[in-house]
Design a protein that fits this description.
271 residues, single chain, disordered C terminus, eight-stranded mixed beta sheet, 5 helices, alpha+beta, disordered N terminus
């Protein structure tokens, strides 16, 4: 009896839950898109007038397979805007019509969605006793056994897959292709003896406990390293471009030197 009470006492130490699934899934999808687009290097077509053809990207408002409509807020609009930003950072001059362009860039989105699973260390909730009692006539119904877990982990992940290729508007000759860019993002919630959740993953800046950041807890965090800066600029970071509007325009030769060295040297912000 004493042992049974001690075990039950352990399970009553604390409990916690998080209800931010919708926000978490949106952050996961947008982070996966950002990480994917950051891998694309558009400098090969920089300096030209470019029209971004998004015909084959999932239309805004349409159903994305595997993503429920109530949380389908990170859609093609976000992918398209991220591509336009990456093109602009590479020195491409975006135009609004095909006729005004020198180069047509055609984009497609192969994946954008979330997935998840739950692992319970202990006894999951079940109605075994109730099912067994129903076999014997006249036996009263027995209640379901609640979940008795020592630890529990919930993991949600998102993936994005995007590809772009470019061709000459007039001759239709192929000019460039990005290859397949793919990236993912993840978030984990962990409960130990009902205490939690401990939250860590790509979308968090450090480990958090029930939504608050923990600075001293030494749990591995899954934050990705900074992007490889395919354009010499991480589009997820603050950056001020050289432009005569700001009075910091650079000479053409100086700009070419900066772009050629971008892959090996991280450019500093222009003040």
């Amino acid at each position: 009896m004493i042992l049974a009470c001690a075990v039950c006492g352990c399970f009553l130490l604390g409990c916690g839950a998080t209800k931010s699934f919708t926000a978490t899934e949106q952050l996961l999808m947008s982070d996966a898109v950002d990480s994917t687009i950051a891998k694309m290097d558009f400098r090969a077509i920089g300096g030209h007038k470019v029209f971004l053809d998004t015909t084959y990207v999932v239309g805004a408002g349409k159903v994305i397979p595997g993503v429920a409509m109530p949380i389908n807020l990170i859609n093609s609009d976000y992918v398209i805007s991220a591509l336009r930003q990456q093109l602009t950072a590479a020195g491409c001059m975006l135009v609004d019509s095909r006729d005004a362009a020198e180069i047509i860039c055609e984009a497609r989105c192969g994946a954008l969605g979330t997935d998840g699973h739950t692992v319970t260390y202990g006894i999951p909730a079940n109605n075994f006793l109730n099912s067994a009692s129903s076999v014997i006539p006249g036996t009263p119904s027995l209640p379901s056994i609640p979940e008795l877990s020592v630890a529990k982990r919930e993991m949600k992940s998102a993936a994005a897959k995007v590809s772009v290729f470019a061709y000459d508007r007039e001759t239709r000759e192929p000019l460039w292709q990005s290859g397949i860019a793919q990236a993912g993002s993840s978030a984990r919630d962990t409960w130990i003896l009902g205490i939690g959740p401990l939250q860590y993953g790509n979308i968090y800046k450090g480990t958090r406990f029930a939504g608050k950041r923990l600075r001293s807890l030494g749990i591995r965090n899954d934050e990705p390293q900074l992007a490889q800066r395919a354009n010499g600029i991480d589009h997820r970071s603050n950056y001020l471009f050289a432009n005569k509007i700001f009075g910091n325009a650079k000479e053409p030769n100086e700009e070419k030197t900066r772009m050629s060295d971008a892959s090996s040297n991280l450019p500093t912000n222009i003040k």
